[in-house]
Amino acid sequence: MKKEDTHNVRFAKLQDEYLENRKPETLVQMYTLVREIESNYILDYMAKHGLFFNSDELQDKIEDATIFVIDKYLKKKDFKIEKLSAYAHFGMLKALFKDKDKEQALKEISPEQWMELTPTNWYE
User: Fold this and answer.
1) Which residue has the higher pLDDT, 106 or 40?
2) Cα–Cα distances in Å, from 105 out to 34, 50, 81, 97, 122?
3) C-alpha dihedral, 18 to 22 to 25 to 27, nearest 10°
4) Is the pLDDT score of 122 beyond 50?
5) Whole-number average pLDDT of the chain
6) Among 102, 71, 69, 68, which residue's Cα sits nearest to residue 83?
7) Which distant-in-sequence residues (6+ apart) come within 8 Å of 70 by Cβ?
8) Which residues of 32-71 are buried (b: 16+ CB within 10 A; e: fewer)?
């Protein structure tokens, strides 16, 4: 692959190779490329929207977005992405906002209710 190939072109080549040979090594290369893209997308989104996540949360969001894309290849034999950038963008949004309702509910809890919570029921 040429260094100047876009992520979409590089991914399309890897995807075609994986769909042809189903080698785990090819899927790992796809994962690595998607993780790089998701990291860039999430960091750009955070900068544009003034968001902050601690390092662990950020890595979890990147991992969730990456798995959203790669997991489909493990579940559907003929799964194919036509344009990675669009699919990765959706994975990023899903990862960033998957816990939004739970986080909003926690923000609306009074100090007294916080005192009653235990770590085992925080996200129920």
Assistant:
1) 40
2) 32, 21, 35, 14, 10
3) 50
4) no
5) 83
6) 69
7) 27, 30, 31, 34
8) ebbbebbbebbeeeeeeeeeeeeeeebeebbebbbbbbee
Please name the residue that has the structure tokens 């190939």. Answer: 5
Structure tokens at 76: 């559907």
The amino acid occupying position 2 is K
Q: Are 18 and 73 in contact (CB under 8 A)?
A: yes
Which pLDDT score, from 0 to 100, does residue 78 have? 87
Domain ranges for the chain: 7-98
Which amino acid is located at 55 in the chain?
S
What's the pTM? Answer: 0.76
Q: Where are the alpha helices (DSSP H) in the chain?
A: 7-21, 24-49, 55-75, 84-97, 100-107, 111-116
